[in-house]
What we know:
CATH superfamily of the largest domain: endopeptidase domain like (from Nostoc punctiforme)
Helix content: 10-25%
CATH topology of the largest domain: endopeptidase fold (from Nostoc punctiforme)
CATH class of the largest domain: Alpha Beta
Number of helices: 4
Shape: globular
Strand content: 35-45%
Radius of gyration: 20 Å
Number of strands: 25
Order of helices and strands: EEEEEEEEEEEEEEEEEHEEHHEEEEEHE
Amino acid sequence: MLDRRLNAYRPDLANRKLRGNITADCYVDGQVARIVVGSAALRPRPDLGTPIDTELLYGEIVDVFERSKGWAWVQARADGYVGYLREEYLVLDCCDITHLVASLRTYIYPEPNLKSPPLNLLSMNTPLSLTETEEGGFGLLSEGGWIFQRHIAPLGSHEADHCAVALRFIGTPYLWGGRTSLGLDCSALVQMSLMRCGINVPRDSDMQEHSIGREAICEHDLSDLRRGDVVYWNGHCGIWIEPAAFIHANATDMAVAVQPLKRILKHMAEATGDNNPRIRRPK
Length: 283
């Protein structure tokens, strides 16, 4: 059966691209739309009381398959995730991406003036469409609004060390389904850190475990881990930096924290019974 997180289908409606793979009453093409809020919660059902699956960032492109009662059923182009978000989070257009937010977070201002009340708060990896207009260190966005240019980087300009990127998130609150520098979960920390280095990976840990880089066969005590290796357990993951430094977003500290891997191995074995961590080597 196709993974519903990555394939837009229901008994009554499905992405036309899935015709022949699944049966639905109706097949439609997606309508292109763009996220216009700093972050948009994506849910498995059109219900604000439902826990979020993930978040979409300002400027990210989605395909919209249904709009009904204030909700839109969409699929994100960035990582393929399918779900429901509030219709007001979208506009039915798209822009050519020229830059990405490179800092942990930054603001969009109504004018090139740091004292002006900000319009939106953006997080790392937010895609942007920048014009050639500059003033006072700010750049003008295609859709309007100004952004501080030292907080962004041209599209295709990446950092080299995803460990260094991950370390910048230390102290960020843990948020189930979160994908921003205001709150994120374990797999989002991995995804966001690698994305800043030009490596696009799936959203959830079970997807990542079978797709990031290559599998690394390590000694049972993990003594031969390399900096940047991603360690997976059932339902959890993090990035190994050095023996005393394993970084992960975790629900024990309710934050992104750095701890010795041995402590995490012991905790995961006791909490989940998973004594067999799997290693992926992104590079």
